[in-house]
Design brief:
single chain, four-stranded mixed beta sheet, globular, 211 residues, 52% helix, 9 helices, two-stranded antiparallel sheet
């Protein structure tokens, strides 16, 4: 597509959906990140690897020495120009969410290559782009993650949520490799916090967060 080279061994229809989604996401990333374009060498494009199975994903992780991501659904690293994901839940919509989530990480790395954001902030930004839908012509983003919202809402109501101090000091990859259930809650709360501070009608909060 215009900004990505996509490779997948999943369905051809999925590959086409992925290309359309990522081009729509590119414009949404650019808006969210203040209009900055990714810093890429020459006319190089960002690359998407969307693997059908865990075996394919695992092979890629081992070959690229990314074994710390073996338990994840995907990843993007600050030292590469590649987004990687696999169909972990056997659900194409969630697979697309994984790819657009990791695509957000890569876009951020390319516009702010020296930045090292806290984990809650990095994941809050990435989960923000999981909220999208198809309107019959193109993908539109409302940034409401339908998978994260009920998870965090139920945890808050049941007082099972991660306290704010622990959330701000948490690390997503560590949780993925040690406590998958808590990791899901961590991601959901990161989405909720970023969504609130980005979308709130409280201008003082919004401006402070943007700064």
């Amino acid at each position: 597509s215009a900004h990505y080279i996509g490779r997948t061994n999943h369905k051809e229809s999925f590959g086409k959906d992925l290309a359309a989604l990522m081009e729509a996401a590119y414009e949404d990333y650019r808006r969210f990140y203040g209009g900055d374009e990714p810093k890429l060498p020459g006319k190089e494009k960002m690359t998407l690897y969307a693997f059908k199975s865990y075996d394919d994903y695992r092979k890629y992780c081992v070959e690229t020495k990314a074994e710390d991501h073996l338990n994840a659904a995907g990843f993007a690293r600050s030292d590469s120009n590649v987004v990687v994901g696999w169909n972990k839940t056997n659900n194409d919509q969630q697979f697309l969410q994984t790819m657009v989530h990791e695509g957000a990480h890569l876009y951020f790395f390319r516009v702010q290559p020296s930045a090292r954001p806290a984990s809650w902030y990095a994941e809050g930004m990435a989960t923000y782009f999981e909220g999208f839908g198809w309107d019959g012509k193109t993908y539109k983003f409302n940034h409401v993650s339908e998978s994260r919202l009920p998870f965090v809402r139920d945890a808050m109501k049941g007082e099972r949520h991660i306290p704010l101090e622990a959330l701000l000091g948490g690390d997503a990859l560590t949780l993925i490799n040690s406590d998958s259930t808590k990791a899901l809650l961590f991601y959901a709360e990161c989405w909720a916090l970023n969504y609130y501070l980005t979308e709130t009608e409280n201008k003082a909060y919004r401006d402070a967060y943007l700064e």
